[in-house]
UniProtKB/TrEMBL annotation:
InterPro entries given in the database record: Mur-like_cat_sf, Mur_ligase_C, Mur_ligase_C_dom_sf, Mur_ligase_cen, Mur_ligase_N, MurCDEF_pg_biosynth, UDP-N-AcMur_Ala_ligase_MurC
UniProt similarity note: Belongs to the MurCDEF family.
Annotated organism of origin: Anaerosphaera multitolerans
Pfam families reported for this sequence: Mur_ligase (PF01225), Mur_ligase_C (PF02875), Mur_ligase_M (PF08245)
Name recorded for this polypeptide: UDP-N-acetylmuramate--L-alanine ligase
Enzyme type, top EC level: ligase
Binding site residues for ATP: 119-125
Recorded metabolic or biological pathway in which this protein acts: Cell wall biogenesis; peptidoglycan biosynthesis
Keywords: ATP-binding, Cell cycle, Cell division, Cell shape, Cell wall biogenesis/degradation, Cytoplasm, Ligase, Nucleotide-binding, Peptidoglycan synthesis
The Mur ligase N-terminal catalytic domain, residue ranges: 13-111
Reaction(s) catalysed (UniProt annotation): UDP-N-acetyl-alpha-D-muramate + L-alanine + ATP = UDP-N-acetyl-alpha-D-muramoyl-L-alanine + ADP + phosphate + H(+)
GO process annotations (BP): cell division; cell wall organization; peptidoglycan biosynthetic process; regulation of cell shape
Length: 461
């Protein structure tokens, strides 16, 4: 196996294929700060790309073999096909090649301590909560997020080599390439079934990830999640648990909600610690906050500092993000694209709705929509009206065996009101004609569905 190590005597120029991705751009920023020459290619324009240019990266907006000239290391993402012309040119010219996950895993080894946040749901929110706790501490951490957090002015904060914080995605078993000193597993659910065979395959992958930890390392588990709790018997590392319903090292009790915003009493090993008041909605964020508190306290942060950071956290972009008001209706946006996430998000919003709750959902990938269709069809119970738009293909091809119409029909079959509208402008017009004061509109999905809220709000100016 290619044993990558950041060594400027060997590598001086790193080229990132797909540099505009949220993780790739962060890695590129870190490498620029380390003094490497950085170039990259990406067909999409974004603020992230412009920032990289400002910071000194050379960016190409098309893929070409000439783009890799001078590079001695090529980094590529899962979204890049194996027949990519830059990747092919690198192979033919025998330039060292490494995938993004392996690069990230190797980078972890260059820090004294590292925290990796994994799980099917909640990775970005939990990592962002930890960021709010640790961003100003003396350790001067390096942080790599899967979203945009105002608290660090983006998706990356570059510090020194004492502490590294990152998300750890399980897609294509990438977690097996990571080497944290603290590994968090928030939950384990069916997803990415274009790669994984079934839930047993997913659980086994997380188990192998946990088994890679040493006796000095920490494994932080959500004890309320049945699949995650199945790892609680491992003996190779130090296991710490968090939860609500079951006995855990870090536990939330006496939970109250104020318009969807939770407060709870934090207990550590059955001893009351403090009352926690969250500025983000939903029970799922109680779990996220418990994971964040557990990870930071177990890494030497005081309960007081953890509480302060958790309570000032107001969310990351595209996670129940407030966008504005149209005709008295609140417009929000959320990244939820899995049935479990949809249920949690809509349940959180439902507690604060005075009028109707409109959900505009853009399914993400044909595979996920097809294989989880039944679960999706039962996920919108808390919405008064669900608008389904066309599937966002992402990395996949359309083989014609699944369509958004199938989902909207299944939702209606389950007794909920759903309509199918393929065009974003038509959805905006529908909302203009129907939403009223007291309503909440949430755009939902991992694609570009957020544009609908932007278009609606822009039309009122």
């Amino acid at each position: 196996m290619f044993n990558f190590n950041i060594d400027k005597n060997k590598y001086k120029h790193i080229h990132f294929i797909g540099i505009g991705g949220i993780s790739m751009s962060g890695l590129a920023e870190i490498m620029l700060k380390e003094g490497f020459i950085v170039s990259g290619s990406d067909s999409k324009k974004s603020k992230i790309i412009e920032k990289l240019k400002t910071d000194g990266a050379k960016i190409f907006n098309t893929h070409s073999p000439s783009n890799i000239e001078g590079a001695d290391l090529i980094v590529f993402t899962d979204a890049i096909s194996l027949d990519n012309i830059e990747l092919d040119a690198a192979i033919k010219s025998k330039v060292d090649i490494i995938d993004r996950a392996s690069f990230l895993g190797a980078l972890m080894k260059n820090y004294e301590s590292s925290i990796a946040v994994s799980g099917t749901h909640g990775k970005t929110s939990t990592t962002s909560m930890i960021s709010e706790i640790i961003k100003n501490i003396d350790l001067n951490p390096t942080i790599l997020l899967g979203g945009q957090l105002d608290g660090i002015n983006g998706n990356v904060k570059i510090g020194d080599k004492k502490l590294f914080l990152t998300e750890a995605c399980e897609y294509k078993a990438n977690v097996l390439k990571y080497y944290p000193t603290t590994a968090i597993i928030l939950n384990i659910d069916e997803d990415h079934l274009d790669y994984f065979d079934n839930i047993e395959h997913i659980i086994n992958t997380f188990k192998k990830y946990a088994e890679n930890l040493s006796e000095k390392d920490k494994l932080i588990l959500n004890i309320d999640d049945e699949n995650t709790n199945s790892l609680n018997s491992l003996k190779n590392c130090n296991i710490i648990t968090f939860g609500i319903n079951n006995q855990a090292n870090y536990r939330a009790k006496n939970i109250l909600y104020n318009n969807g915003y939770p407060s709870y009493d934090l207990y550590y090993n059955d001893e009351f610690v403090d009352n926690i008041n969250l500025a983000v909605m939903g029970t799922h964020n109680i779990y996220n906050s418990l994971a964040a508190i557990t990870a930071t306290v177990e890494n030497g942060i005081s309960f007081e500092e953890a509480k302060k950071g958790i309570e000032i956290y107001t969310g990351v972009h595209r996670r129940l993000e407030y966008k504005g008001v149209y005709n008295g209706a609140i417009i929000k946006d959320d990244y939820a694209h899995h049935p479990t996430e949809i249920k949690a998000t809509l349940n959180a919003i439902r507690k604060g709705v005075q009028g109707k709750l409109y959900c505009i959902f853009q399914p993400h990938t044909f595979t996920r929509t097809k294989l989880l269709l039944d679960s999706f069809s039962k996920s919108f119970n808390d919405a008064d009206i669900t608008i389904i738009t066309d599937i966002y293909a992402a990395r996949e091809k359309d083989y014609g065996d699944i369509h958004s119409r199938t989902l909207y029909e299944a939702i209606n079959t389950n007794g909920n009101k759903s309509i199918y509208i393929d065009n974003f402008e038509d959805i905006v017009n529908y909302l203009k004609e129907n939403i009223k004061e007291g309503d909440i509109v949430v755009t939902m999905g991992a694609g570009d569905v957020y544009r609908i809220g932007d278009m609606l709000l822009e039309s009122s100016k």
